[in-house]
Amino acid sequence: MSTVVAPEIVEVVLAAAGAAAAALPSAAPLAVGSPVTDLGMLPLPQNAAVAVLAGFSGGVRGSSLVIVPSDLVEALAQSPLGQLDLAAAVRAGLVAGAETLGQVVVEAGTELPVEVALESLAGAGTAVYVPLLDGGEVTVVYAVAIAGTVPPARRAGAGRPGGRAAGLELLRDVEMEVTAELGRTRMTVRELLSLSPGAVVELDRAAGSPADLLVNGTLIARGEVVVVDEEYGIRITELVGPGAEDGAR
């Protein structure tokens, strides 16, 4: 059954598809194809294997999905470093696409059979499906279902509303991953595969140097490693600003 979708919704989903295409794992750059609003007319990849579905909320609510080919699934499963998670591999694309719609928080993706994911997406709101092409052939499908309407600033193509303060307010209750880092090094795949119990990996930091505290990979502070109730902790000695990590490396 054909669904009438407002042109402004199609426009913002096309922009989201472009951002997602640039961030999804692919052997070659993915081109954005023509949007489809009738699920029965959607051209699926010949080797479509599975889909990853993720909801998002905030300034806009809805869900997005990526249908991926079997060669990507096989590459992740046969990685020399062990089986890699598909949802984690495509998360950057789902986040990049959803963030073009407004200030949103993207949920963890769920791996589903293609038919189940498409049915779930159709029930989440007004859906638009966008084939992503490699050499003119559909290899991936990106789709978004928006519940309600897109804010006027998004429909007009303006920048994100609200600025930094509004963004921080939106994210105030969102849990973030905090990591303490003692040091780093670089190793070849050959060296990684040769690791065994008892091997020593040298890091790029002298003994006694402060540890870095990172939030989602971004350096925010440095401190001393301490023991609190028989567990490790960090006593903050320095707060750092944007760009400090690049300057320290």
Automatic annotation (TrEMBL):
Flagellar motor switch protein FliN-like C-terminal domain ranges (all copies): 170-240
This protein's UniProt keywords: Cell membrane, Cell projection, Chemotaxis, Cilium, Flagellar rotation, Flagellum, Membrane
GO cellular component, one term: plasma membrane
Membrane topology classification: Peripheral membrane protein
Compartment annotation: Cell membrane
GO MF term list: cytoskeletal motor activity
SUPFAM superfamilies in alphabetical order: Surface presentation of antigens (SPOA)
Gene Ontology biological process terms in this record: bacterial-type flagellum-dependent cell motility; chemotaxis
Highest taxon, organism lineage: Bacteria
Entry's family note: Belongs to the FliN/MopA/SpaO family.
Cross-referenced PANTHER family: FLAGELLAR MOTOR SWITCH PROTEIN FLIN (PTHR43484:SF1), PTHR43484
Name used for this protein in its record: Flagellar motor switch protein FliN/FliY
Protein species of origin: Motilibacter peucedani
